[in-house]
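Dissemination and training. As part of the outreach component of the grant, students in the summer workshop were shown how a complex can be specified as a set of sequence lines and then modelled as a single object. The example used during the hands-on session is reproduced here so that future cohorts can follow it. Participants entered these lines:
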Amino acid sequence: MNDISPARLQVMWNRLLAVVEEQGQTLIRAAFSPIVRECGDISAGIFDAKGQMLAQAVTGTPGHINTMAEAVKTLRERFPAQMMKPGDIYMTNDPWLASGHLNDFLLMMPVFKNNQVVGYTSCTSHLVDLGGLGMGPEGSDIYDEGLLIPPCKLVSEGEINALLMDIVRANSREPVANDGDIYALIACCEAGSERLLAMMDEYHLDDLDTLSDYIIATSKRGTLEAIAEVPEGVYVNEMTMDGYEAPLTLKATLTVKHDQLHLDFAGTSGCSSKGINVPLNYATAYSVFAMRCIIGSDIPNNAGSLEPFVVTGPSDCILNAQHPAPVAMRHTLGQMTPDLVLGCLHQALPGQVPAEGASCMFDLPMRNVAEAARDGGHEFAIELVHNGGTGARSASDGLSATAFPSGVFGSQVEITEAAAPVIVWKRELLPDSGGAGEYRGGLGQRIEMTSAIDEPFLVFLSVERLRNPAKGRAGGAAGAPGRIRVSGRDADIPGKCELRVEKGERLIFDTPGGGGFGAPQLRDADALAHDVACGVVSNIAAQASYGGDT
Amino acid sequence: MKNYTTLRLAIDIGGTFTDTVMMNQDGSVVASTKTLTTHENPANGALEGAKRALDSVSGSMADVSGFIHGTTLATNALLEKRGARVATITTEGFRDILEIAYERRFSQYDINLQKTDLLVTRERSLTVPERMSASGDVLLPLDESCVQGLLDTLEAVGAEAVAICLIHAYANPAHEERLRALLHAARPDLVISISSEVSPEAREFDRLCTTVANAYIQPLMARYLDAFAAQFASEGITCPILMMTAGGGMTTIQTAAQFPIRLVESGPAGGAILAARIAAENDLDEVLSFDVGGTTAKLCLIDNAQPQTSRHFEIGRAARFIKGSGMPVRIPVIEMIEIGAGGGSIADVDRLGRLTVGPKSAGSEPGPVAFGRGGTDPTVSDADIALGYIQAETFAEGQFAIDADAAKAALRDTIGQRLGLDAYEAADGVSRIVDESMASAGRTHAVESGKELGQRTMIAFGGNGPLHACRVARSAGVDRILIPANPSVGSAVGFLYAPVSFEIVRSRYSMLQSLDLAVINQLFVAMCGEALDVVRQGDATGPVVTRRSAYMRYNGQGHEIEISLPDRTLTAEDIVPLSEAFEAAYARQFSRPVPGMLIEILNWSVQVSTEAKPIAETGDIPKANNFSVDHTRTIFCDVDGIQKEAGFVHRSDLKAGDHVLGPALIVEPQTTTLVGADFNLNVDARGNLILTREVTA
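and obtained this result:
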């Protein structure tokens, strides 16, 4: 087995990458949860017999990077390989083991060849509802947030555990969709296992050892070479966020050595009493994603490429929340960690790191009010996703209304209106919301909607940057903050709450803009004139922010 | 001597070559030529090809009774941004549908990513007050007082074509039609595409993109089609010219000029039609069509002699053919996966010391190193030459010299020195990487379609398909390959097998259990009528086949499965069998159906096409004969990398029943078939080469 040529090992590596993409596609196509099927909020990976990750699908969200790698290690420790049988599948949704909140279910399946476990396939997907207070920040502890399933065996030699399925069903407002999504996860594990075995047969492999060593060593070497290009030093960055009950500080110290990047969250505020706390596995996932965007981004995720990135945080800071803190909306702050990390990296690599962006997606779960269901009115539940602008880059403008760091898809208005009794009257870029700069920040968007049937509806809000906009870099100006209003009401709506929109009222969201890069006075005159002609920068702003004479 | 009574002519204009094929009344190919594409006026190259082909059978233009044309012009105009200056008109409040799109980046880690250019700037994005609901009710009437303002702005921004896409217009086209009429009343010269005609499906971004793409190429294509028809008419062609479409059917020049977006990728579609025809002739239920040219490889799944179809296509994906990086269009297409891997694909070594191949291509200029036309980067063809698979003496009918030593030197210097390999090992590596990426594209495509590759017969054609077929088949787990006659002009041959057909898809959301049969039946009557009208313009009397289908999914899912419907009025008795058909199809894709789910339907489609020509009987099963191989060439075996003697055979010397053991090279004008050491070759009664792999137990 030891004399496989590098070219052939590389072919097998490419094959593994293809297998995880296939797994991911299977999961997305079979999924019921809208954020999975429309937005790709999943992960799929292949592991060797020691539980080291060899390949991971590049899917809609970085929130599963390393969380999955760590989860498989934990599950393997919990369930010894010699107890496993072909056709077994293990499962958990423990936020501190899987992916940061109860909705993310993680499955792991051992792959057998000649009666030996030769590797594992694993996948994660977002289920619609696990009971409790549901997808919102209002829980006071994890018990308020719904059903937690500790690591357990979901499928035993091909037989699905009926009691476990009954328990999940009995604890959800969306039992049918949950059922469907668990079936999709099972299909995903099984597809990965089949493809992996087919590859091993084709190459006459009895184990993955040589291939695993090759993938991990090659990736680690490449990652270390990339790290070596970052100047050694200690880089500190701090950001103020809106928070729930009070503003919060996120602080990071990045220590760069030739063979390691160590990020620590010391100095970050303590936990909130509401569900915006972030388990460290999830904060790590987004932080490492941001670092890998800048350092060695062409190297696929696996045990080798991830090893040099170490993330720590003081226990009980809001980026290392401990059980039983509420964590349902952990993505609100989790998705801000890339801006935090990029602020450190900018000091090490000026000119390679973009300005801050809207970052946290406007994830907007909506449903009918309780009395509508009681009185025989229209019942519905949807989860819209919309985004603000990204930060300007060092040589190009930011992207308007575009997801970063998450990779989820925005909802199409015609699909939203077919699925739920709402009418979206406007979804348009918001002029002047991009931070001014030599390169302009991406624009936010304005979305206006009403009920289509004269019944009130509920929105569960957990968004950021309504009071603390995205900062510019290198002299660039900040982007516009986000804003949420309801027509006819005097006060703006806070970013984190349960909002009831009455019939006849119009709900108006402005998503935040991205920060600018470089001094606005340096902006190319043609670029500014084009912005004005296209109406993304007003004449007034062209003069006020750019000193332009357009 | 004339060996025909009637002639049918097919011309496929590609980026480099224009392929011309002629068939007689028996469906036998009587002439085929390759001429250089004349970009200035593509009709000139087509005319030269037609004349050459006619000369070779002593025929004249007047003898041509059928003429099918396919062209990359529409695709290239979109790729090279040579279309009209388009303005969009959308519902007020939705000016930025194009820029907002799906709010996502197609490449997760690329911090400097630039979004796809969707052809219309915000300056040329206009809006009009009006609004339909999802069910097609008017929420806000069209504000006709705005029309003058729109006309002024169109004038001011210099719009040459207009794409109108109003929210929910697929459910009620009244406002789009009225707006077009009002604009035309003032500006009859304005080219206008409306979304409810071009692509009447929900999802405003995709529908607008499709409408924009159609408007963008409409002026150019209308001019081209007019001129093409006129030029051939003046040369004596009397039959109507039909256009090949992306969906694998033919349509009239008039329809093509109205919906030119349906002409994109018609060449590759022709290849898939050829493969489907061969599948039918040979009773092959499961086929993988494998078409490799100089720049790309196209793979298509064909079940029961029907190419897989889709309603979604992306134009101009970014360099690495990344999904989601192109401009999406929703038109009926033959579903295939196209990757940047062909003979001209360039090999290199990346930062991690990994060997990479493509998608950058040396094209025909400067071309592979061995062609001696200035290319310095080693390509897939250079690797094939170094390995001995392409022999200098027979390449391109000996029209130009091949410098094998230059190919080897480039492989050694660019690849070998950085990886510690000699020229042959480097060539072997290049071959393995490119073949694996083609096989991997095939596998991923199969999974995305919920299908398997293993049991399929690969039908290989295109200039480089027969050369790479064995290697890719081995990697994809395929054991049987068929190389048809005239493989290097496969797409044009396919044109001659295409039916006259037209497909319409409409969105009408319904739950299967509570289907409003009257509404759906009425929808089908209208759709069938429209599609038949188009088909009748191309074939006034012939028998037609109508295929109806519904796109179903479990309520709450996001991806639909196409389920066939009976070609008649639906009744309440159909509901249960349809639900069973869906569950069976679902279980095939996702291992088991999900209990207790409701089924919903999003889209309904109708395809009307003329019947395929009957398949000629073959004669008796040919007598088996071990072909005696007189010549050999030294090659590096693609199985174990060891130098071996391979049989060297001219395809024209082979006859039905002949049997050749691998390794062997079967050469013919413009292409070579490599028979791997683990494959055997048999010639079937129709002259196809059948390669079968000895599978080790």
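DSSP finds 16 helices and 36 strands in chain B. Students were then asked to discuss how this feature might be tested experimentally.
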